[in-house]
Amino acid sequence: MKLILLGAPGAGKGTVAKRLTAIDGSVQISTGDILRGAVKEGTELGKQAEAFMKAGDLVPDDLIMGIMEERLQEDDCKNGFLLDGFPRTIPQAEALKGLLTRINAQLDFVVNLDVPRDVILDRLTTRRTCVDCGAIYNVKSMPTKVEGVCDKCGGKVVQRDDETEEAISNRLDVYNAKTAPLVDFYGKEGMLLSVTATSSDLVVSTIQEKLGL
Ligand code: ADP
Ligand code: ZN
Q1: Nearest-CA neighbor of 194 among 181, 208, 207, 175?
Q2: Which three-class secondary structure state does DSSP give residue 7?
Q3: In 66-181, at which residue ranges do the beta strands (DSSP E only) sit?
Q4: What are the catalytic residues?
Q5: What are 54-113's pLDDT values in tens digits?
């Protein structure tokens, strides 16, 4: 499958993407994970992105398009991909359209994960992430077996730098201003599937059904 997962921070894009990869071997491509990896490794990309991310602002479009131009042409994308956290602006969506045409790939559709703001706020403040493998936990609904230690890889599980109350509130404002317009953009392209995303089970089964899988 070739899908875009749209939705506010905390809407569950990552969780849904991970579950979909298990269905048909499509790869999850998370620009957030790629950027956090670059910051951790201290690469040139990481240095350029770090301050934007910490504040909850978007990283400039040209950096993001540079990443995606390369990533989408890697071999593992041939079986399909789930774009998680990209595109996030109208210029990124326009550039993606050109890129997909050039590499001769066609999207199935764009899923919009629709979640009420209070649910989002609650999820983001209680979310914890493994710094090594990116596994996502929740102190209320899905805690690690040992506090602060990843069940899957033994890595350190922490609250992300951009998951302070201030950065979260900024990320939601940035989402509403820059990313929410993509719902209309893909609606006009006739590609949108909107799903109420309070349960990721329901989202996954709705997508599966729509794809006939
Ligand atoms: P979430 O969806 O939970 O907000 P992500 O992990 O997708 O978080 O992204 C974390 C941060 O990485 C964003 O706040 C932003 O700074 C940066 N980022 C990720 N993807 C993009 C993108 N497509 N365009 C611009 N910035 C991005
Ligand atoms: Zn881990």
Answers
A1: 207
A2: strand
A3: 81-84, 109-114, 127-130, 136-138, 157-158
A4: 13, 88, 127, 160, 171
A5: 988 999 999 999 999 999 999 999 999 999 999 999 999 999 999 999 999 999 999 999
Determine the distance separating the centroid of ligand 1 and the alpha carbon of 53, expressed in angstroms: 7
Residue ranges of domains in the chain: 2-26+79-211
Q: What is the pLDDT of residues 100-142, one digit of tens each?
A: 999 999 999 999 999 988 889 888 999 999 999 989 999 999 9
Whether the Cβ atoms of residue 81 and residue 110 lie closer than 8 Å to each other: no
Q: Residue of the nearest CA to atom 4 in ligand 1?
A: 9
The reported pTM is 0.90
Q: How far is the CA of 61 from the centre of ligand 1 (A)?
A: 11
Mutate to test the pocket of ligand 1, among 53, 65, 175 (most ligand atoms within 8 A of CB): 53
Domain topology for 2-26+79-211:
Rossmann fold (3.40.50)
Report CA(157)–ligand 2 centroid distance (Å). Answer: 7
